[in-house]
Design a protein that fits this description.
Blueprint lengths: L9 H6 E6 L3 E6 L5 E7 L12 H21 L4 E5 L10 E6 L21 H14 L2 H4 L1
Antiparallel strand pairs: 1-2, 2-3, 3-5, 4-5
């Protein structure tokens, strides 16, 4: 399967807001104002694990993870960045990048399955997406 066959999992579609399109991945913002939480989804159909990616895409994914993590830390200063590819519920390959602060709603535990998501206000969501998009431009990432 190719990128042309790529479809975003309906659960990811429902739980996130699109932020940017990078050469390999779609960058999504989790709709949970408790955490600054981005998700990278490689546009590679049929992949459930990082090792399922072709070598060139695996290398590109790590580069995009590093770039997006740096941008997230710039926009949402944090004590720790959590980066992981779990996929126990959504099987489609995706990588979580979560800016964690000591004392946040789930600290020190994982964010997954911890309480109910709190929606962003429309102004806060627009502001955060705008800040992320400005920093995820190709010229900034080069």
């Amino acid at each position: 399967m190719s990128a042309a066959d790529f479809l975003l999992d309906p659960r990811l579609q429902a739980d996130t807001r699109h932020v940017a399109t990078l050469p390999l991945c779609e960058v999504l913002l989790m709709k949970d104002a408790r955490f600054a939480w981005l998700i990278l989804v490689p546009r590679q159909a049929g992949c459930t694990e990082i090792l399922d990616l072709p070598d060139y895409a695996r290398d590109a994914l790590w580069g995009e993870i590093n770039q997006v993590a740096a941008v997230l830390r710039e926009v949402a200063p944090c004590d720790k960045l959590n980066i992981g590819a779990l996929g126990n519920i959504v099987r489609q390959l995706h990588v979580h990048i979560v800016a964690r602060k000591q004392g946040d709603a789930a600290w020190p535990g994982p964010v997954w399955g911890n309480g109910a998501a709190m929606p962003y206000s429309s102004d806060a969501l627009s502001s955060l997406v705008h800040a992320l998009r400005q920093r995820l431009t190709p010229s900034r990432l080069a």
